[in-house]
Amino acid sequence: MKNVFPFSSSLMTDILAWTRNRILGGQDPTHGAQSFAALEPVLGGSITAEGIGGAAAFDLFKDVIVPSTRPFGHPTSLSYVASAPSQAALSFDAALGAAGIFAGNWDGGAGAIHAENQALSWLADLAGWGDTAGGVFVAGGTLGNLCALHAARDWKSRQGPRPQRWAVLCSGEAHSSIRAAASVMDVDVIEVTPDETGRISGQAARDVWQPNVFAIVANAGATNCGAVDDISGLADLAEEHDLWLHIDGAYGLAAIADPQTRPVFAGIDRAHSLIVDPHKWLFAPYDSCALVYRNAADAANAHGQSAVYLDAVDKTHWNPSDYALHLTRRARGLPFWYSLATHGTTAYGEAIATTIATAQKIADGIDQMEGLELLLGPQLSVVLFRPKDMSEQMMEEWAEENRRSGALLCLPTTWHGQKVFRLCIVNPDTDAKDVLETLKTLT
Ligand SMILES: Cc1ncc(COP(=O)(O)O)c(C=O)c1O
Question: Could you tell me which residues carry N6-(pyridoxal phosphate)lysine (predicted)?
Fold first, then answer.
């Protein structure tokens, strides 16, 4: 076969060997961002007319690029919402890249789409939704929220007269992506004041509801504090006024896989859409957000694209491009499907229960440690605490020192106007004892 871009097969072997070692050995917790000034002299000249060659480019990747990234997949990475992809998911992701599947429509990716849909059905079943449910994997929770809200407004617009300005109702603890989506859609945001734990009730939402609201967004694991809103109460309000109820579970809805935790999401069966990111707490690599609609046909009305060059696409099958703002896509849900198919749903539930138990052990340890004050949690797997006698500057310095040494990635956040530390555990390999040893250095 003619090959305009020949590539050495021994280099291919090297790349695969590196990939294998990386998956088996895991990430280096001392890696982290480098400055532009440090990176530019090494990477700046990498694009040339003749090419630098595969070996030199791969050396740059393993020796410069990878060490200049934050190891979110390491068990000591407990800030933001990290990631904990299984070895199965990582290995499979490499194979998926090689397969080069177009998964925007059924014609291009039938087998892959069918498998992705198996994984989406598992989530829909956990939510208690029936056969009309379906969706698609998009790049992340931000896009998932936007696409769900676009479908919601389209659905509501079909029901009657449109107000001058649409509005979405959400918690004051809603993720920043809800505001970002509202800005893209040019709609207002009505915030509901959460309680002490960061949760909003149906009654609190009812108190601020206005007739121009088209959707309510419920947190199923608020990013900063782990709160799960009163989904049942919000569903009551949604049903009273024919509103779309969307569940932002990008981080926390993964916990629905744990039978012990599932009841905190009561009422989700009455929601219209949900998102959950497998790249957060469902042991899959970047980037994937499962976007699922209770009645997928509503989303197809909003998102389906038509163009003459697309007339040949078989419309009788499931076309993922109909369910979000995209056309071409990789089958980004497949590493999640592979990991779930490999290990089974029971192992998934157990792994999530393990992380919740780890969060509880850490919270208990903090509570017992003189010099530390446990402020909240764990809510799902988020813990907020503060050192009693430490200035904000000392907190920043402590966080930076431990990040650099690779002992712990634990960064400050703000809670009720105060600088505090936040831990968010998504990795079943995180060791509570190790974390508490490091936290002792705060006292
Ligand atoms: C609750 C919640 N929603 C949405 C997002 C955005 O997800 P992504 O970063 O995948 O766009 C996050 C990210 O942490 C989140 O925690």
Answer: 280
* 353 close to 260: Cβ distance less than 8 angstroms: yes
| Cβ-contact 194, 178 below 8 angstroms | no
Closest ligand 1 atom to 174 CA:
1
Nearest C-alpha to atom 14 of ligand 1 is from which residue? 81
For residue 169, the one-letter residue type is L
- Verify whether ligand 1 is closer than 6 Å to residue 140 (CB atom): yes
Q: Is the CB of 171 under 6 A from ligand 1?
A: no
- What is each CA distance from 65 to 7, 31, 42, 285, 345, in whole angstroms? 21, 10, 10, 18, 35
Given a cut of 90, whether residue 343 has pLDDT beyond it is: yes
Q: Which domains does the chain have, with CATH numbers?
A: 94-345 (3.40.640.10), 346-440 (3.90.1150.170)
Q: Is 175 in the pocket of ligand 1 (CB under 6 A)?
A: yes
- Ligand 1 centre to CA of 50 (Å) is 41
pLDDT in tens, 40-60: 999 999 999 999 999 999 999
Contacts of residue 201, Cβ cutoff 8 Å, sequence gap at least 6: 195, 229, 230, 233
